[in-house]
Design brief:
With 286 residues, the chain is α+β, with helices and mostly antiparallel strands. The chain folds into two domains: 2-91; 102-283, Galactose-binding domain-like (Jelly Rolls). The chain has three helices and eleven strands, in the order H-H-E-E-E-H-E-E-E-E-E-E-E-E. The chain has helices at 2-54, 61-91, 146-150, and strands spanning 102-106, 112-117, 132-138, 174-177, 181-199, 217-223, 230-237, 245-249, 256-263, 272-275, 277-283. Strands 1, 2, 3, 5, 6, 7, 8, 9 and 11 form a nine-stranded mixed sheet that branches. Strand 6 and strand 7 form a beta hairpin. Helix 1 (2-54) packs antiparallel against helix 2. It is found in: Membrane.
Length: 286
């Protein structure tokens, strides 16, 4: 009985220590966030005070709201950067050989550059930041019918929103028949796009090690908030010979609120294509 009691005591002590440590981490994180919010509140109050006393002709509510909104957007962008960096670090363990912190950078003609370190940045196509799938033109896997289309359930098995989520489990993708589809994504906010990322399953995580359902040739267009006119960004190729997360460097002269992806082929699967993840990076100001 004594050895059994000893094991129980040891397990109890270890559990108590782990719970205490977890509570300490939560409290520390909460205090740090409170300090940051306090500093943000002080800065906003100070700027509002300066505006009211130095620019009396512009101290109306609308003008102050514009100033405060601008400050908050800049501050929140920094907070999003920190949160996204933490998520990137946690996701490094999801897949052996998967490259997130270091992605293969591609050019507009689909040629790959040298493997380079990609700094963690805000993904403006993330659902958690407010991005959404604006429009989809693709043939559903189950063929669909009028009733399901009217209810918006034609893609319920593998919905398009999966492309904007971080999970990379097998089947957690947007799937459509054959290889052609047009997807329009509304970003969290209008940005100057600097790069985007397309990601498929690791070969080792795919059923039967088969990644032929990955997209291959595709076009990308940017659309501004003021107009639905397409501005072509380039033609690209996703290749199975490179890391699952492939980054494409681009240049945009104007802010795009929407990104349109036109998928034209896959890597040989005769029945369907799967789009696992799309990420878009850029800046709100040049």
């Amino acid at each position: 009985m004594e050895p059994s009691r000893s094991r129980v005591c040891i397990c109890y002590l270890i559990s108590t220590f782990l719970i205490g440590y977890f509570i300490y981490i939560l409290v520390s994180s909460n205090l740090e966030n409170s300090r940051k919010l306090g500093r943000l509140r002080e800065e906003v109050d100070e700027i509002a005070h300066v505006v009211l006393h130095t620019a009396p002709g512009q101290g109306d509510t609308k003008h102050l709201n514009e100033i405060v909104d601008g400050i908050l957007k800049k501050r929140l962008a920094g907070i999003w950067d920190d949160l996204y960096t933490m998520k990137k670090q946690l996701r490094l363990t999801e897949c052996t050989g998967r490259t997130t912190a270091a992605a293969h950078t591609m050019t507009a003609d689909g040629e790959g550059g040298a493997l380079m370190a990609m700094p963690a940045r805000v993904n403006y196509a993330a659902e958690e930041l407010g991005a959404k799938v604006q429009d989809v033109n693709a043939e559903p896997l189950d063929g669909g019918n009028l009733v399901r289309s009217m209810l918006g359930l034609q893609y319920s098995a593998n919905p398009p929103i999966n492309m904007l989520k971080p999970g990379m489990e097998p089947g957690n993708c947007f799937a459509f028949k054959r290889a052609k589809a047009v997807v329009t994504i509304k970003l969290a906010q209008a940005i100057f796009v600097e790069s985007f990322e397309l990601e498929h399953l690791c070969r080792g995580n795919a059923p039967n090690n088969d990644t032929t359902s990955a997209p291959k040739e595709f076009e990308v267009y940017g659309i501004t908030a003021a107009s639905w006119k397409e501005s072509k960004i380039g033609d690209f190729i996703y290749t199975n010979q490179h890391p699952p997360a492939q980054n494409y460097a681009v240049k945009s002269e104007c802010k795009f609120l929407y990104m349109r992806f036109k998928f034209k082929s896959n890597h040989g699967h005769p029945e369907y294509t799967c789009i696992y993840r799309i990420a878009v990076y850029g800046r709100s100001q040049k």
